[in-house]
Design brief:
The protein is mainly α and about 500 residues long. It has helices spanning about 1-5, 25-60, 75-90, 95-130, 140-170, 180-185, 190-200, 215-220, 240-245, 245-255, 260-270, 280-295, 305, 315-325, 345-355, 365-380, 385-400, 405-410, 420-435, 445-470, 470-495; strands at about 205-210, 230-235, 300-305, 330-335, 335-340. Helix 16 (about 365-380) runs parallel beside helix 18 (about 405-410), helix 17 packs antiparallel against helix 18 and helix 18 (about 405-410) packs parallel to helix 20.
Length: about 500
């Protein structure tokens, strides 16, 4: 089933330039260099063979003693074939690019060494009629020693400073998970808090998860002491090609992509130049509910990379459908993950009702206040409860200044007229805080979240003042908004290796 697996981004060709996973530019440089070096090596091999044959022929005619020409090290054909094979593997599937570099670069270096030796010998033969590798001149040895030392110092300092900036300086993406390991593996994006939610509430049964997070989810559960089984079973994990048969992955793909239902609805909306309507998303949600019920799945855990990205195939639309199905309410979320449950099942109903009764356990006050803000503002219809919802959102924001509680404030709470003055005052205060602290925030872990929240607040205030016709304040908040965007762009560019 190799062709089926190569449909996945990491298994696609190295030279598939539209692929969002990784970059093949360094590999392309190595690939071109390998061909140039190999062609040069073969040409010099041919030239040298002709010259040595001519010399041997002349010696034979004069009946002189034959000379062995040992300027070429023995050709290690298996080694060259291994290098060529790994490069071919990388061309077919980009996940093999590191292996191609490890195997190919030493061979390229070996060929370069041989090329230099042959060129030196040819020059020596043209000058002195001696077909041997000449000794490297003293000044040239000194030059290479100095050049090598300078290169080591330069690149060592450059990469050392870059390592410090990316892996040792304050980490913008998370205020807690900021170790070198977390940064190198991007593990701060994993569902640590969602797994604590699952453990604390002792959840079991079957779930739908994103396949690349499956291994972490299994690791984050408490296995049975007798047989090692995890209580909340995965639908798929990152070992899809090894531990699951193809049918399992195809079933996961069918559900996540929405099959023909989602495709038909999305294509119809695109043809009419619009986004899918709420009614259309409910239709997708109904189909998702049917498929998940067939598989006895009652819980869905998805990362933000899926539900925040409309271009993520149809996965985004499938989760958006679940979000619009009244049988699948949200019971846990933060900036990185969301958990939906089927309230037609007893554990799903218990978790959902526990939000309002306090019986559902949450990792900390931030997550408890955040889901309460969402639920109070969405489900309650009284002014008193909506004010409580706004207070929960503000409390969550004070616990962890980030985009999730800010969106509850400026999108959900701002829909109610009686809450707008408090919402606008909160946003204005936070913009002033951003102006006062923008030079200090980069010295603290998690400062990207604060800046993203400030960007949202600036956008809200810009729109409000634009609608009021206040051009001076509109320009002021627009300028602050642009500064937030510039900082976020700088963070993105500077924190990548």
């Amino acid at each position: 089933h190799a062709a089926r697996w190569r449909e996945i981004h990491e298994w696609q060709s190295a030279f598939d330039w539209g692929n969002p996973v990784g970059t093949a530019v360094p590999f392309l440089v190595m690939f071109i260099l390998a061909w140039l070096i190999l062609a040069t090596w073969l040409i010099l091999l041919l030239i040298t063979s002709l010259i040595t044959s001519t010399i041997s022929s002349q010696l034979s005619k004069r009946k002189a003693k034959h000379t062995k020409f040992n300027i070429w090290p023995k050709v290690d054909l298996p080694l060259i074939l291994i290098g060529a094979l790994t490069i071919y593997m990388a061309i077919r599937s980009r996940r093999f690019i590191p292996i191609a570099a490890i195997a190919g670069c030493p061979i390229i270096a070996l060929l370069i060494d041989q090329i230099i030796r042959v060129i030196s010998t040819l020059i020596n033969y043209s000058r002195e009629k001696r077909f041997v590798v000449p000794e490297m001149p003293y000044f040239l040895r000194i030059y290479f020693m100095i050049a090598g030392a300078v290169a080591v110092l330069f690149f060592g300092a450059w990469w050392g400073m870059k390592f410090k900036r990316i892996y040792l300086n304050p980490w913008p993406n998370d205020p807690k998970y900021s170790s070198v390991f977390m940064r190198m593996t991007a593990s701060d994006a994993k569902p640590f808090y969602a797994m604590k939610f699952i453990r604390d509430n002792e959840l079991s049964g079957k779930m739908l998860n994103y396949w690349t997070e499956g291994g972490f989810i299994a690791w984050g559960e408490d296995p049975n002491e007798d047989d090692g089984q995890i209580p909340l079973k995965l639908f798929m994990d990152g070992r899809a090609q090894a531990a699951y048969n193809r049918d399992a992955f195809d079933l996961w793909s069918k559900i996540m992509s929405g099959d023909w239902v989602t495709f038909d609805i999305i294509q119809r909306a695109k043809a009419r130049g619009r986004k899918p309507t709420t009614a259309e998303y409910r239709e997708i949600g109904k189909w998702m509910d049917q498929q998940l019920t067939k598989q006895n799945v009652w819980l869905v855990l998805m990362p933000s990379a899926v539900y925040n990205d409309p271009e993520e195939n149809n996965y985004y639309h499938a989760i958006k459908g679940i979000e619009n199905d009244p049988n699948w309410p949200l019971v846990f979320y933060n900036d990185k993950q969301k958990i939906y449950v089927n309230v037609k099942t007893p554990p799903g109903r218990k978790l959902f009702e526990g939000i309002f009764t306090g019986e559902t356990s949450y990792p900390d006050d931030y997550h408890r206040n955040l889901i309460r803000a969402y639920s109070w503002l969405l489900y309650y219809g009284t002014e008193e409860k909506r004010k409580e919802g706004l207070k929960f959102a503000i409390d969550a924001f004070n616990e962890n200044p980030s985009s999730a509680p800010m969106l509850e404030i400026i999108l959900r709470a701002a829909r109610f007229n009686e809450l707008i003055p408090e919402v606008d005052q909160f946003c204005d205060d936070y913009v002033k805080r951003f102006i006062a602290e923008k030079n200090n925030w980069p010295k603290q872990d998690g400062y990207r979240n604060r800046i993203e929240a400030a960007r949202l607040a600036c956008y809200r205030m810009e729109q409000i003042n634009r609608s009021k016709g206040n051009s001076e304040l509109t320009e002021f908040y627009a300028a602050q908004y642009e500064e937030c965007v510039d900082q976020l762009i700088r963070i993105t560019r500077s924190m990548k290796w």
